[in-house]
């Protein structure tokens, strides 16, 4: 994913929102990956740090989140509306962003596998909770399941994400 974005002149930072110790606990309990307030606040803290970096201030910020990371991205986008210029959710659980959905102003692309009907329904419901003026789009990757493990499906996701960021991040435009 990062390679396709980087080739499109979009810089990337890969962030683990859980510490190594938390990840070990989560592998046993699966509870921390669903702690959206925790994950969202961590992303807000990282965003604030990035905004303080003088060499990055000319760049616009977009989030790419998968599964529960997409909910965290939407929560953080709602908390930092002036900073976050675009969001991409891949196989995301935007429903877990809850009330924050009503405060998301960043243009948001929802990408869901065509063979993932539960998550597709959850995305449709979440989209209805966005403010009316929030630009959004739902893209369905036919033949893809929740993790997009089928050949070529992640490539399609990467191209859609790159195009969305090019469209909405001035610093990514050529």
Structure report:
The chain has helices spanning 2-7, 20-29, 36-51, 68-79, 117-127, 153-168; strands at 61-66, 84-90, 108-113, 136-141. The chain has one domain: Rossmann fold. The model has no long low-confidence stretch (mean pLDDT 95). Helix content is 41%, strand content 14%. It is of the alpha/beta class and 174 residues long. It is built from six helices and four strands, in the order αααβαββαβα. Strands 1-2-3-4 form a four-stranded parallel beta sheet, sandwiched between helices. Helix 4 links the parallel strand 1 and strand 2. Helix 3 packs across helix 4.
Tell me the name of the CATH class.
Alpha Beta
What is the tally of helical segments?
Answer: 6
Largest sheet: 4 strands, parallel
Average per-residue pLDDT, rounded, comes to 95
| Order of the strands making up the biggest sheet | 1-2-3-4
Quote the CATH topology.
Answer: Rossmann fold
Name the overall outline. globular
CATH architecture: 3-Layer(aba) Sandwich
- The fraction of residues in strands falls at 5-15%
